[in-house]
Amino acid sequence: MKTGARILLEGLQREGAETIFGYPGGSVLPIYDELYDSEIRHILVRHEQAAAHAADGYARASGRVGVCLATSGPGACNLVTGIATAYMDSVPMVAITGQVPTSMLGNDAFQESDITGITMPITKHNYLVKHAADLPQVVRDAFYIAGTGRQGPVLIDIPKDVMTTQLEEVPPVGTARLRGYQPTYEGHTLQIEKAVGLIAEAARPVLYVGGGVIAAGASEEVARLAELMLIPITTTLMGLGAIPCDHPLSLGMIGMHGTEAANYAVTECDLLIAVGVRFDDRVTGKIEAFAPNARVIHIDIDPAEIGKNKPVDVPIVGDAKSVLQRILHRLAKKEGRDGWLDRIHRWKEAAAGGAESDVLGPAYILAEMSDLLGENGIIVTEVGQNQMWAAQHYCFRRPRTWISSGGLGTMGYGFPAAIGAHFARPDETVVDVAGDGSFQMNIQELGTVAQYHIPVKVVILNNMYLGMVRQWQELFYDRRYSYTELPPVDFVGIARAYGVDGMRVEEKADVRAALTAAFESDGPFVLDFRIEREANVFPMVPAGAAINEMIGRRQR
Amino acid sequence: MKAHTLQVLVENKAGVLSRVAGLFSRRGFNIESLTVGTCEEPGMSRMTIVVLGDDAEVEQVKKQLNKLIDVIKVSDITERSTVDRELALIKVAADAGDSRAEVMQIASIFRAQIIDVGTRSVILEVTGDTEKIDALETLLRQYGIKEFVRTGKIALLRGSKGAKAQK
């Protein structure tokens, strides 16, 4: 005899889930009882939102499906922001929620919420399991859906009586049976040939690559294509790490806070090779002026992204890795591309330099961090100025070393996601780059890192403002700082109260020593950098402008 | 803006209608009509959805529908040779007298059945394509339409071709 709860855990193990993140409650008691002596490691967070973000960070750092668990009603509802975050960034995740017993469904029972209804628009798919016998196949299908095609979160809602049902015989698990779900991996040969033709002929091509390249593990193919055909590459925020920042063909990031070289190159290119991207408004600015003179090749696993925001000349639905491999097979090496690469070089030169100041600024801290960690380290961020500064000033060299909420822009994401990333890659130094605003959105996770001695390092770029909103108020609302100033907080004191080490840094001269101390510590560490209060993220493309209409210069 | 007719094969499971309807409202697509019922394939239902939009919008509707796991096949049959029908029930004011005779005459021209007769009204049942039902409604309006209900369009491809389950 096996209970539904046991069948669920066996399903999770079968799918390779060895670490899950959760928070107990009334409706999931049977699952927690089975977890008590299960081989699955469960990490107790301090808020369900953190469980979802931790599962997400785990998935992004490892490429495997992350798992989180919460009780019915408020527990399930607290997962919602985390699920939406994963959905927007196509992160493979399975969220498991308890539900009131089937006999009470729809009766407004204690801690009941219609979580399958609530999460319908923010999951790839979801299930309300009404029979324990369905559990094995549902778990198999859920992991299959989450981890294939365009990846995303799947929610499984399980009423409490289904968890306690005893089954004499557990139905066997087949392969995923989904007649309505067959992702396309192989690109269309005719379109691939058209793409090859355009790439061979182009005078001023640019590769524009995003999170899809990371998800497909296609970084190597991107670099090979760039090097073979001498094509400069820009990445989206989600694509950071797809190409080393110091690669000679790298233009840096594109978009609202992208580099001059990237934004100018895309505006002037005659061929845009878009791979695993979705022409998001933060990338394109005014869409009519985005790559206005270019033919567009768009490679994506999701057919709905192709042509959604910008008309495309060569649509290729498929897996980025295999499509790029097939394109590479058909191309002969390009021997020179002097004019175009020279212009790009001049844009890069013009943007470089700038005076260093004596005040403690974010760029300096991130550059020192980048220097200290070198090829090692996973950088997770919160959302706002901290995120953009990290994207601009840290040199990412490998895929899956940059973890950030791009699509939804979820403040409070970074700290719990860093916890998840640690369990996926315990060998790496995991740093959460935070602002004082964002860190306070999930600061309670200090309890989690203390309890399990999780060596996540929190680097707070503390300007006592909700900095990005303040920046917009400065630039576009006549410096009327409406509700964006935050009073000073003794973050080191809070960390210590939880039993976590910390240090406040106010002088530029102390940055390196403080970072070294944090990285050398074998436990969690909070660094509170009191930075220049009104530093801005530059360059910047104002909302609605074309991406070559940038204001401000990058600071050092 | 043009009306497109989509035939959508879906899993016959709880929540499918709400997934489809939710997709339309969330993405701001306009549904003119939607009908759903079981079909020849066991475990599946067939929806006929009439959606208003330009070609690019409807292309996006089709792609987004296809992304739903419970959607098995989406076919745009707008430009294809189909038979389509709607059924409408119309309660028309018709006192015993001239107007009742006229209503009954119009009904007979439209091959509508009179399925209920009251002292001051009659109920007509009519099937046909959307234009026919619109025309009948226009003609009956002068007598006073008390209640009007229609099923929305259902459609099948002509001949032996069909929008079967293989994607």
Describe the 3D structure.
- The complex is a heterodimer of chains A (556) and B (167).
- Chain A has 556 residues and is an alpha/beta fold.
- Chain A folds into three domains: 2-167, Thiamin diphosphate (ThDP)-binding fold, Pyr/PP domains (Rossmann fold, 3-Layer(aba) Sandwich); 189-351, TPP-binding domain (Rossmann fold, 3-Layer(aba) Sandwich); 362-530, Thiamin diphosphate (ThDP)-binding fold, Pyr/PP domains (Rossmann fold, 3-Layer(aba) Sandwich), CATH 3.40.50.970.
- Chain A contains 22 helices and 20 strands.
- In chain A, the strands form four sheets. Chain A has a six-stranded parallel β-sheet with strand order 3-2-4-5-7-6, sandwiched between helices. Chain A has a six-stranded parallel β-sheet with strand order 11-10-9-12-13-14, with helices on both faces. Chain A has a six-stranded parallel β-sheet with strand order 16-15-17-18-20-19, with helices on both faces.
- Chain A is globular, with a radius of gyration of 24 Å.
- With 167 residues, chain B is α+β, with helices and mostly antiparallel strands.
- Helices cover 28% and strands 42% of the residues of chain B.
- Chain B has helices at 16-26, 55-67, 98-109, 130-140; strands spanning 2-11, 30-38, 44-53, 71-76, 82-93, 113-117, 121-128, 145-150, 154-157.
- The radius of gyration of chain B is 19 Å and the shape is elongated.
- The chains are: A alpha/beta (556), B alpha+beta (167).
- Chain A binds chain B through residues 116-117, 120-121, 124-125, 128, 145, 178-182, 302-304, 307-308, and chain B through 10-11, 14-15, 18-19, 22-23, 26, 56, 59-60, 63-64, 66-72, 165, 167.
Summarize the model shown.
Chain B: Pathway: Amino-acid biosynthesis; L-isoleucine biosynthesis; L-isoleucine from 2-oxobutanoate: step 1/4; Amino-acid biosynthesis; L-valine biosynthesis; L-valine from pyruvate: step 1/4. The complex is a heterodimer of chains A (556) and B (167). Chain A has 556 residues and is of the alpha/beta class.
